[in-house]
Task: structure prediction
Amino acid sequence: MKVALTVAGSDSGGGAGLQADLHTFAAFGVHGTTAVTAVTVQNTVGVSGVHEIPPQLVADQIRVVVEDMHPGAVKTGMLASAPIIEAIGEAFRRHGIGRSGSVPLVLDPVCASMHGDALLRPDALDALRSLFSLATVVTPNLDETALLVGTRDQRAAARALLELGPAYALVKGGHGTGSRSQDLLTDGTSELWLDAARIDTGNTHGSGDTLGAAIAARLASGDTLADAVTAAKRYVTRAVATSYSVGAGHGPVGHPPATDASLLPDPAAAGVGT
Ligand code: PXL
Result:
């Protein structure tokens, strides 16, 4: 059984965070493990509280999972604070996760929820940037590139992100405008544009987490990065197309089985839900 690890926050509403990651790992037939960074008090309307886990406890969760279960890929989501990020960086280096070792690392630089609630302390941006040099791929949306590298231009953002040391930047276009949702994957030498129809729904809670977790699941199964990202883009498009309403606010994306992602409809042709 392939294993993936997510280092992420809990969403009590079950739509995003480690809950979305675990749904995604399961959909890809990968055993999911977790190192919890923070517990959010959250429903579909917003985040009303955050409890951070002590940094040593986060590092200990990573250690025991890695030592025993040998995840084939690791993903990070909400990291909450600079001390937590520093403990995670140290644990990753010690256990060969990311570019300091052989286990690929998908780093989703989560800063805020879709309601605009902070999921990262403002003084932790530098710590987050310094983790990028360990990442196989960083997967910011345009709000996050604005915060991290000061631009919403996808090519300019990718260039600035790569200067921080990840092997690849995947700059997502989902927070842009227009009828297409286009993501740019680049290592600074070649470019791959991933294109899908924009699906008109307010129920996109957890879509970023789902994309990153799908990349990690496919990497754990042995895909190259470009293949993993291509499969993950198809999957997240399908996930948004199968989103649903629950609660009074933004509903979650769906997590249909994806053990053969090639069977999923081509998102570029689908136009699903529009
Ligand atoms: O979708 C980003 C995200 C990640 N992690 C947690 C979240 C959210 C968004 O709300 O709550 C715990």
Summary: The first strand starts at residue 3 and ends at 11.
